[in-house]
């Protein structure tokens, strides 16, 4: 039996129908306002779009033709296949050439389709770029329109603004506004300056308070300590006087032992008032320097922390305060301010100067007590008087030489009771330090020898430097003493 094969029916669509059904770029109508600036760019974009549309139509026409050819070839193959089935003799013929030709056509058709697709993609890219250029043109047109509107609004505002010179009322308004602005600015600036000054004053007060607080605390501690010293010294004055006298005797013990030796009775030591031979002069200088060196070494020893008595420490600290002092020396007062409510702090150098002045004054007062006691020393000998005067002169010389470099800061305009002491002999027996109200020189003690008269002693350079160093160590002991 012969079966009837149903062949697929293919509808052949015309080119006109497809072009109507597809939404091609040829059928789209773009409405756009042309401007004077973008006219040339729009012409170029339209030409590019028309060329792209023509290419697309050609590709579609070629594709439709190839499809028709394929349909004809398929019909021929189907008819040939039917003939083969119906007629046995047809088996003798070979079908290979037909099949090869069909595959070759099919491959060519696929290659053309790929090429057509690439061209379509390139055309779509060109169209998109043309659209971008169109959007840029529209943006520039909008920006130009906005600028024109702004310029027009600014021109209108200028026309509406007050023009001084044309209208008196406008001039008055303009002047009033300017005056108000100036007054507001001046008022604000004035208040800002006031606030700034107030802030600076508050800041300065805070700084002053920070700086004054430790000084106030230090002053309060000094006052409380000064009150304790005063109470302790006034508690038992007789005992304190005995302790001070004994301490002074111990300081002068070594020096007195040489002064009282019988070996000195046969020699003249006063090289200032007497004319001595070179040998006698050398012996007198050696003995004088030895006596003073023994005194300085014992003085250094007894100012040590262990051997220094507390009563001297209390007297030294009390003499730092202006209202507790009994007298003021010209040399010291010119170089320091004593502690008071006006001056609550003094330097360490000034403190050491006041300490040493207090110790030297009390030490010489104890020396006078020892000299006037025949059991301690016999002052009827001329050598003893000479050596005591030399000792006082050299001690005062070291004190003034050490502190003469301190600057003069006090003009002595305050109510200072300046006193000077004079070494004198009463009734040709007793020695004393008398107070002199009329102060002419800076020396604490007068009635001693001049420094040029003692120049032979300073010819010994090593001895001179050694006594200076020893006096420095004594000052250091006084400064470091804690009671």
From TrEMBL:
Residues 1-12, 36-68 have a biased composition (Polar residues). Residues 139-149 have a biased composition (Basic and acidic residues). Residues 1-68, 136-165 are annotated as: Disordered. This is Uncharacterized protein.
């Amino acid at each position: 039996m012969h079966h009837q094969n149903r062949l697929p029916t293919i509808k052949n669509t015309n080119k006109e129908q497809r072009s109507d059904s597809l939404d091609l770029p040829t059928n789209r109508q773009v409405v756009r306002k042309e401007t004077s600036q973008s006219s040339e760019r729009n012409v170029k974009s339209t030409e590019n779009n028309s060329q792209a549309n023509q290419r697309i139509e050609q590709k579609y026409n070629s594709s439709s033709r190839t499809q028709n050819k394929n349909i004809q070839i398929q019909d021929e193959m189907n008819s040939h296949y039917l003939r083969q089935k119906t007629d046995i003799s047809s088996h003798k013929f070979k079908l290979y050439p037909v099949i090869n030709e069909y595959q070759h056509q099919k491959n060519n058709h696929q290659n053309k389709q790929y090429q057509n697709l690439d061209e379509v993609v390139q055309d779509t890219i060109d169209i998109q770029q043309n659209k971008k250029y169109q959007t840029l043109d529209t943006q520039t047109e909008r920006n130009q329109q906005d600028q024109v509107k702004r310029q027009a609004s600014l021109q209108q505002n200028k026309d509406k603004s007050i023009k001084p010179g044309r209208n008196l009322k406008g001039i008055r308004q303009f002047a009033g506004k300017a005056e108000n602005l100036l007054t507001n600015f001046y008022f604000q600036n004035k208040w800002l300056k006031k606030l700034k000054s107030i802030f600076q004053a508050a800041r300065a007060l805070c700084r002053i308070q920070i700086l004054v607080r430790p000084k106030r605390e230090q002053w309060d501690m000094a006052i409380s300590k000064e009150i304790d010293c005063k109470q302790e010294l006034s508690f038992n004055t007789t005992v304190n006087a005995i302790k001070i006298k004994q301490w002074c005797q111990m300081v002068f013990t070594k020096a007195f032992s040489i002064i009282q030796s019988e070996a000195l009775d046969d020699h003249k030591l006063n090289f200032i008032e007497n004319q001595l031979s070179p040998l006698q002069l050398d012996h007198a200088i050696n003995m004088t320097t030895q006596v003073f060196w023994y005194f300085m070494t014992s003085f250094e020893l007894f100012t040590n922390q262990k051997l220094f008595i507390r009563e001297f420490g209390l007297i030294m600290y009390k003499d730092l305060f202006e209202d507790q002092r009994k007298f003021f020396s010209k040399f010291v007062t010119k170089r320091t301010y004593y502690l008071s409510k006006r001056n609550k702090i003094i330097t360490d150098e000034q403190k050491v100067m006041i300490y040493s002045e207090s110790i030297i004054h009390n030490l010489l007062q104890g020396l006078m007590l020892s000299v006037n006691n025949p059991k301690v020393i016999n002052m009827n000998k001329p050598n003893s008087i000479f050596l005591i005067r030399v000792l006082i002169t050299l001690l005062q010389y070291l004190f003034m030489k050490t502190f003469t470099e301190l600057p003069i800061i006090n003009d002595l305009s305050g109510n200072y009771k300046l006193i000077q002491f004079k070494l004198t002999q009463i009734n040709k027996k007793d020695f004393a330090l008398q107070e002199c109200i009329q102060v002419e020189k800076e020396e604490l003690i007068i009635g001693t020898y001049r420094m040029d008269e003692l120049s032979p002693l300073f010819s010994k350079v090593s001895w001179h430097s050694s006594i200076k160093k020893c006096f420095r160590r004594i000052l250091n002991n006084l400064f470091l003493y804690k009671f």
